[in-house]
Design goal:
- The complex is a heterodimer of chains A (118) and B (112).
- With 118 residues, chain A is mostly beta strands.
- Chain A has no helices and 11 strands.
- In chain A, the strands form 2 sheets. In chain A, strands 2, 4, 5, 6, 9, 10 and 11 form a 7-stranded mixed β-sheet that branches. A 4-stranded antiparallel β-sheet of chain A has the order 1-3-8-7, with no helix packed on it.
- In chain A, a hairpin with a 2-residue loop joins β7 and β8.
- Chain B is built from no helices and 11 strands.
- With 112 residues, chain B is mainly beta.
- Classes of the chains: A mainly beta (118), B mainly beta (112).
């Protein structure tokens, strides 16, 4: 089945530093990937849609200069949390849908990245 | 914005019992999907039901969809301790918007 690899799985950084999270589709191509954020015991909130070869589409309230998304190839999207602050601490999850299927196909998720900003 | 609401928020049952989780949503959908999430992990797709379907089965899972009430239910029969996880419904509105909108989730605890 389709596999999405996300790393790192866990990262601790100091306030003011930047953190890059990678999301790779291992056995399929994905022109579109989705980045979600999840707070403890809460649901997933869509942050942005990553589009290969073009700018990401951000959801309302998500700072695009804070959360930089790059989708340079059909199998890789990266999310960079710039100048991280403790309130950015969260669980970030990427997902992708296998191309060639209709929008009735399920999303494949990475295992998430637990970011802790101290 | 969060569309789906699920109830109960938390559910604790004994092994062998059935677990029922409900999901309501607000907008028109193309399909509705259920996902499972183990603590601190990504989501795993369980089952997808299309807007023109009313019921679907997969192993011990049964999903219903009532588009007139904008609601869905997930039934897990003969639960096992390994079913302990959070369960989320997610709606696919189609129409070019391909991201899923997730419900608030139900935390299921199955006591051995």
């Amino acid at each position: 089945g389709a596999v999405v690899s996300q790393h790192p799985s866990r990262v601790i950084c100091k306030s003011g530093t930047s953190v890059k999270i990678e999301c790779r589709s291992l056995d399929f191509q994905a022109t579109t990937m989705f980045w979600y954020r999840q707070f403890p015991k809460q649901s997933l909130m869509l942050m942005a849609t990553s589009n290969e070869g073009s700018k990401a589409t951000y959801e309302q309230g998500v700072e695009k200069d804070k959360f930089l998304i790059n989708h340079a190839s059909l199998t890789l999207s990266t999310l960079t949390v710039t100048s991280a602050h403790p309130e950015d601490s969260s669980f970030y999850i990427c997902s992708a849908r296998s191309e060639g299927l209709t929008n009735r196909s399920p999303l494949h998720f990475g295992n998430g990245t637990r970011l802790t900003v101290t | 914005s969060q569309q789906g609401e699920e109830d109960p928020q938390a559910l604790s049952i004994q092994e062998g019992e059935n677990a029922t989780m409900n999901c309501s949503y607000k907008t028109s959908i193309n399909n509705l999907q259920w996902y499972r999430q183990n603590s601190g992990r990504g989501l795993v797709h369980l089952i997808l039901i299309r807007s023109n379907e009313r019921e679907k089965h997969s192993g011990r899972l049964r999903v219903t969809l009532d588009t007139s009430k904008k609601s869905s239910s997930l039934l897990i029969t003969a639960s096992r301790a390994a079913d302990t996880a959070s369960y989320f419904c997610a709606t696919d509105a189609g129409a070019g918007r391909r991201a899923l909108t997730f419900g608030s989730g139900t935390r299921l605890q199955v006591q051995p």
